[in-house]
Structure formats: C-alpha cells, structure tokens
C-alpha cells in the first residue's frame, strides 16, 4: 500500500460496514449489494485500490463504479466516508455482530436495540442474563434460548470465529502464487488445517523452500494482500490479510523442506505421536530436521521423514491421530482417496427454472467443458416459493426442454431429470408419487422448520429415507453459515436408515454449507452408506464448489468407490 493512504482492508471494511448498516436500516437491496460486492473486490485486489482511485482507475476493477471510487477518494483525502459516519450515527455498528448471530438477522437485531438498548454483544449478553429477551415483540422463549446459546458459543465475538475453507483456501492460493513467483523460492506448499482438508481453520499456513529467507519474508510483508505484519522472526512471518485472516509463512532450506512441511501439516496430536515414535528409535525430530547418535541432517521431502521412522506417508487429510500412524506402520497400504478427477458427473445444480443464474443449456456446456459425462438438473420443488420452486406442470415442461437438449448431444453427454424436493415440516414430501416416478434422481432436502427439535428434524429425514422414490438426502443438517447453524440431527439413526434402504447422503460442497461435514461423512462411510459429492451450483462458476465436497470426502477417508457420482450413469449399488 502507499504511505499515508488507507490499505485495501481498511477500504473494504468501510464498504462492508456501510453495507451492513444499510441492511439493518432496511435500505434497498441493490445499494446493500453494491457495497458488499465492492468490499469483496477491494479485499482481493493485488494493487493499492487507494492509488487506483486517486488516479481515477479504480473503476477498472469489477463492481467498482464511479460512486464507490468517489468514496475511496473521500476516504483518502479526509480519512472518513461521510455516508458511513452518518450511518454510524443512526445505527450502532455493534448491531452488525448481533445480526450475524444464528436466528437473529437484521430485523430482530433492530428490535433488540429498540426495545432493550442492546447495541452490541456485551449489552445483549446482559439482557439475556437478565431474562429480558422475551420482552421484545416477536421473540418467544424458544428464540430467546437460541440467542443465548449462540452468544455462549465459541466464535460469537469478532476475531474468535473460524474461517471457512471457501475463504481461506483461495486466499492461501493467492499467497502461494505470489511466493512461487519470487526468484529466491524453489518450492511452496499450503500446509496446516487447509492441507488436511478441514472445513474451517483459524489461520492459513504456508511453507517455503528458499536459501534467502530475508528476501522472501520481506516480499510477504510488502504484498498487496497484506494489511499488517503481526509478528516476524528469522524464518517466519505472520501477517493479517486484507480479509482479516491470519497468514503464517515459514521458510526453510530446500534440503530440510520435508521436515518443515510435515511439521506444518500434521495436527498437534499426530505430530506428538510421531515424535514419540522417533524418540523410541533414538531420533530427535523437529521442523528443522533430525538428530541421532550419528549426527544430524534434514529431509527434502515428506516421504523421507516418514520412511526414517519406518512408516509409509499418510495422506495429509488423515493426519489427525485417528489410527493413521499404526496404519502407516502396518503392511496394509493407505487407500487411494477420491479426487476431483474421479468424478464422472454432478447431479445437484440449479438453473433459471428456479433460483439459478444460468439456463440448462449453459450449465450443460459448462459441465461438458469440465469433462463431466452427465449433469443432473435439480431445481427446487414448489414448497420453496422464494426460489420459484417448480410446480408439477413446470416440472413436465422442464423435462421437455431436457429431452430436446439431450437429442442434440452427439458425444454421449446426458442431462438427468432430477429435483431437489422439499421435505415438508410434517415429514411429507413436496411431490406426489406419480410425479416422483418420472425423475431420474430425487434429492430430498430440508429447507424450512430447521428450528424444530432434533428428534423432529431426524424423524423428517427418516420419513424421506423410507420413501422408495428418494435417492439422496441433500445437505442433511441444513446448515448455511454464518446465518444458520445445522440442526442437531441423530446422525447414527440417519446412517442406519440410509444403509438399510441404499439412500445416499450428500456432501454438499457449497462453502456456507459443507454439509455433511467430515466427521458425519466418516460415520456414514463406517455405517456402509455411500456419499454423493455435490456443488449445489447456482451458476457456472459454482460448479467448482464440488472441490470443497471432495476435500470433505477425502478427510472422511472416502475412495472413488464410496462416491456415487464417481461412477458412470446409471449408478449401481
């Protein structure tokens, strides 16, 4: 960033806060979206947006128009944005954190402030402790209990929350690409929880092989993606990115890179077990290399680290001290975990028939470009009116379009007639049996009544699994973070029922969902249930969300044989 001018994070934070405050006030949606989109573009910019704005060139960035450029210039010249300061006068900024709590939202946040004067999390906690939440119109005992639970949950306060892989992984890749372009860097790897496939992480870890650590660390500190340096040493640097995510870069010489990568990847428990094994063998092991009675040295690759201890190298996703070290010491090889390349098609995508942004034909072309052999069009059913869910008549008209498109494919590609059908609040299904028989595949999902008790939600899932027409249970817990936590379903009961009927459970890769999570996916596999890995794409670009589903499946230990859509259509049990 340029001296004396606001950095990209400061600009982005200002736009995001202004958009949030406008949302609390009930402003027009297009105004709110303009500021939120602008904030995202500024955070991801690789040059100083302040410099661009002063030069009149910030409008070259997507979603930055003349109005936003003028506000950036205003921030540069005056140190503030008048519209933001006025919004702060009207609405306490602390309401943004209150509105972000599961089950609250802008409307209830404003009601809590108006009725109780709760303008920040501390004030809301005090009101909850005093039993005053139910004094607010529209907040009954159940909602009040949910708010109190959310306040007590780790991550309720800003800075405590984990960062989803949907944010952390693209950021890590941007840093890695910047480092890989440096002339003194011979190798770069993303490490830590991201390399282990975790859905959420506290920070981003990157390791670098270099013989010039000072130059590399200086390069990191000067990167446009960096808001500020948090800490630095002779071989490491920790920075806060423009997205507010902590990024730690560790450097080491190429001949010891394997030691560094292994240490930075394994969980604390995995690494402890590894060091204990090394100690019993008379070897001292650390990120800096090894030492034994005959001397010391380093290892350029991870395989050498594990081989020195008589172990095969576990896949990174399995390094959680869940039996992988014993497995690595046995004669049984590790499984080949599923990859994106194994997928033959996708079956959970949406189009302009419901709430998607692209036509069926456009989504089909994008799927073919990705190498898919089939694509299931799974638009919403009629109960989800906000998404223009399909009535039976519209379903049949969509089938006609799919038939016309299929007749034009000469490469074996096929569109499948699918649906994401709602499981109703009483446990019933949104379409009758006669219509359901016409689909190639039926995905049944819960989108409403997610505040019901866990036993009621579970009963709805079990009723859907019992239907002979339901092939897949979509995003089983219904979570969509940060707005909505998942329902506390009885996953063991769901797995038992799905195994008995051959029903698939979905691993939904849409970043706010990532549902099933890896722990539940592992329980499904252990219970004999196959998985469906989906992107839940509502656009061409979002077809790539399937990557996050694959990461979860790998972390659960899934092979290609465990994933239904890693096989040609039609599937076999």
**Averaged pLDDT, please?**
91
Number of helices: 23
Count of individual domains: 5
List segments where confidence is low: pLDDT < 50 over at least 5 consecutive residues: none
CATH architectural arrangement of the largest domain: Alpha-Beta Barrel
Q: How many distinct beta strands?
A: 17
What is the general shape? globular
Notes on the structure:
The chain has 573 residues and is an alpha/beta fold. The protein folds into 5 domains: 8-90, DNA polymerase beta, N-terminal domain-like (DNA polymerase, domain 1, Orthogonal Bundle); 95-152, Orthogonal Bundle (DNA polymerase, domain 1), CATH 1.10.150.20; 163-252, Beta Polymerase, domain 2 (2-Layer Sandwich), CATH 3.30.460; 258-329, DNA polymerase, thumb domain (Beta Polymerase, domain 3, 2-Layer Sandwich); 340-566, Alpha-Beta Barrel (TIM Barrel). Helices cover 42% and strands 14% of the residues. The chain is built from 23 helices and 17 strands. It has helices at residues 8-25, 29-44, 49-54, 66-78, 82-90, 95-100, 105-116, 121-129, 141-152, 165-180, 192-195, 213-221, 257-265, 268-280, 302-308, 324-329, 360-369, 392-408, 433-436, 454-466, 491-501, 518-526, 546-555, and strands spanning 163-164, 185-191, 200-201, 203-210, 226-232, 236-241, 246-252, 284-286, 289-292, 295-297, 345-349, 374-377, 414-422, 441-445, 472-473, 504-508, 531-534. The strands form 4 sheets. Strands 11-12-13-14-15-16-17 form a 7-stranded parallel beta sheet. A 5-stranded mixed beta sheet has the order 2-4-7-6-5, with helices on both faces. Strands 8-9-10 form a 3-stranded antiparallel beta sheet. Strand 14 (441-445), helix 20 (454-466) and strand 15 (472-473) form a beta-alpha-beta unit. Helix 20 runs parallel beside helix 21. The chain is globular and about 75 Å long. It starts with 7 loop residues before the first helix and ends in an 18-residue tail after the last helix.
